[in-house]
Specification:
single chain; binds flavin mononucleotide; 37% helix; six-stranded parallel beta sheet; flavoprotein; two-stranded antiparallel ribbon; Flavodoxin/NO_synth; alpha/beta; globular; 6 helices; Flavoprotein-like_sf
Length: 187
């Protein structure tokens, strides 16, 4: 059984909805299990992420998909606290060769969400992970998936807290793709 973790932070629920859609995409692939993990405020004590069981649960997965809302042009402070808590894992390169991908959402069409994805990619590469993007060229897809055209990760946009249906479909696709990449490596 392949395992794909989706770890994310969300306050008003839009990143959470994308995570759920990604999960359904992962689970649509045979012999693949999705693990949905939410970073919560209570995991952070005096500015440090302290949830060891979350870090442990990531040790046995084949892939990790990272998600955060775009806050002030990057990941949220809560997501960054989680990232900073992985320093020891980085020293050991414990996550090396796991598949990775990322997703974000912002309330502006071009609210610097790309910087969030680029941060997630750098974070994954620091861990020796293998980054997977979105292989759908924007504007060319008959289903209009990847409507915002980012290929380094899933970028979504919501001005009012409601999810765009096409963004959710793209999220499901990202989950499928990561599961398929894992299956290729496993083979
Ligand atoms: C402190 C703060 C900073 C934000 N910064 C940005 C930003 O830089 N770009 C953007 O497009 N949206 C920005 N937003 C909007 C959020 O990204 C957006 O509301 C997102 O859907 C929230 O995700 P959530 O529902 O998972 O909490 C910001 C929101 C907050 C509260």
């Amino acid at each position: 059984m392949l395992k794909v973790a989706i770890i994310f932070h969300s306050v008003t629920g839009t990143t959470n909805s994308l995570a759920q859609a990604i999960k359904s995409g992962v689970e649509s692939q045979k012999d693949t299990e999705a693990l949905l993990i939410e970073i919560k405020g209570e995991d952070i004590i005096e500015g440090r992420f302290r949830n060891e069981s979350i870090l442990e649960s990531l040790s046995s997965v084949n892939a990790v998909i990272f998600g955060s809302p775009t806050y002030m042009g990057c990941v949220s402070a809560q997501f960054k606290a989680f990232a900073d808590a992985t320093g020891e894992l980085w020293e050991q390169q414990s996550w090396a060769n796991k598949v990775a991908a990322g997703f974000t959402i912002g309330s502006n069409f071009s609210g610097d969400q790309l910087n969030t994805i680029q941060y997630l990619q750098i974070f994954a590469n620091q861990h020796g992970m293998l980054w997977t993007g979105v292989d759908i060229p924007g504007n060319c897809d008959p289903e209009q998936r990847n409507r915002l055209g980012a290929q380094s990760g899933l970028i979504a946009h919501s001005p009012d807290g409601k999810l765009n249906e096409t963004d959710l479909i793209t999220a499901t696709y990202l989950g499928q793709r990561v599961a398929q990449v894992c299956a290729r490596f496993a083979a």
